[in-house]
Specification:
The protein has 185 residues and is α+β, with helices and mostly antiparallel strands. The protein is built from 8 helices and 4 strands; from the N terminus they run ααααβαβαβαβα. 50% of the residues lie in helices and 10% in strands. Strands 1-4-2-3 form a 4-stranded mixed β-sheet, sandwiched between helices. β2, α6 and β3 form a beta-alpha-beta unit. The chain starts with a helix and ends in a 9-residue tail after the last helix. Belongs to the eukaryotic ribosomal protein eL8 family.
Length: 185
Amino acid sequence: MGSEKKRTREAEAEALETPKKKEKKTKKEKTPKKEKDENVSADTGDAAHPETEKLVYLSPISSPMADPKLAKKILKLVTKAAKAKALRRGIKEVAKAVRKQGKGLCVIAGDIFPIDVISGFPVALEEARIPYCYVPQKVDLGAAALTKRPTSIVLVSADKAADFKDELESCAAAVSKLPVLYKLS
């Protein structure tokens, strides 16, 4: 019986000691670490403007870049094409469609890293005479293509574009008028 009392006393003592340890942990407070997003907004100086944050991460070859109004119009077109199953998503599918002389409008994300992934597309698209442009973020392009994942490149196919042919032609005309830093002769 003496040993049982001793065990209960030890258990009670441990129960009383445990909160003291927790109190010591709560007294020590660590200084909060700065997040990466705060550093980026401090570097750019425009934390209130999300448009400029999108443009911070652009690749140097992203030309012609669609202005925000045209980008919104193009992303709506991509959504309609995705619903009508007239959209090629991803690098492999778009490369295959370009090789097979597919026609339409190509939209490339401007924040792709590494650049080598999409660096060959502008030349191939110009040789195939397919209009193309860049939009600021791959996340926006993936959302417009009705996927959960970001998408680096899409091709809106002109073959299956019966419902939105007028919009496709107007977007292609607007994209053709965009200034290009370099042009294949």
